[in-house]
Write a structure and sequence with these properties.
8 helices, mainly alpha, 184 residues, elongated
């Protein structure tokens, strides 16, 4: 069973809570109490947090592809691959923002679902920002990027490997069928 801390400095916790510089969980960890206790105390005493703003620069975004002048003309494989790489890059930027602001997102989710009778909404939202959710997103994006790069190659993997072998020399060339020689 967990031991309780006998003295909790609620005045200090209130100051940190109202300043809004750290997440509620960070404050709770620092004072060795649960974040739920801070939330309950804040609600009971009517503490109002300042809205936190992001102090980080937004990642530089690549410009969107120019609109197609001729809609009947299909995109070349190179253009499709470039658009796909750009999309994967933008999605990785979004994943980075979610990862760097996870604590704030969890606080917002908890505040938004505070009065709900059913915890299903909170659980689903927390699962979306969880480590496993972000790891699966990263894995999917990496697979998509790999597929785009392989598909944009001018030829298949085997043909590219064969071409490299031919460049190196006859030593790595495929062996032809056996030849029969008549012996007298």
């Amino acid at each position: 069973m967990a031991t309780r801390k006998s003295t909790i400095d609620w005045s200090r916790i209130e100051i940190e809570y109202l300043a809004g510089e750290d997440s509620i969980r960070e404050i709770a960890d620092r004072h060795e109490i649960s974040d739920t206790a801070i939330r309950k105390r804040a609600k009971a005493e009517g503490w109002k947090r300042q809205v936190r703003t992001a102090n980080r620069c937004e990642p530089e975004r690549s410009p969107p592809p120019p609109p197609a002048s001729n809609l009947d003309k299909p995109l070349s494989p190179a253009e499709i691959a470039d658009n796909g790489r750009s999309l994967v890059g933008r999605m990785l930027d979004e994943l980075d923002v979610v990862t760097s602001r996870r604590g704030e997102l969890e606080d917002i989710i908890i505040d938004a679902t505070d009065g709900d009778d059913d915890d299903a909404k909170r659980t689903a939202m927390m699962r979306a920002v969880s480590l496993s959710g972000r790891a699966n997103t990263l894995k999917t994006l990496a697979l998509a990027l790999k597929t785009i790069n392989e598909a944009s190659a001018p030829q298949g993997k085997k043909a590219a490997a064969q071409e490299k072998a031919n460049e190196v020399g006859r030593r790595f060339a495929p062996i032809g069928p056996p030849t029969l020689k008549a012996v007298k």
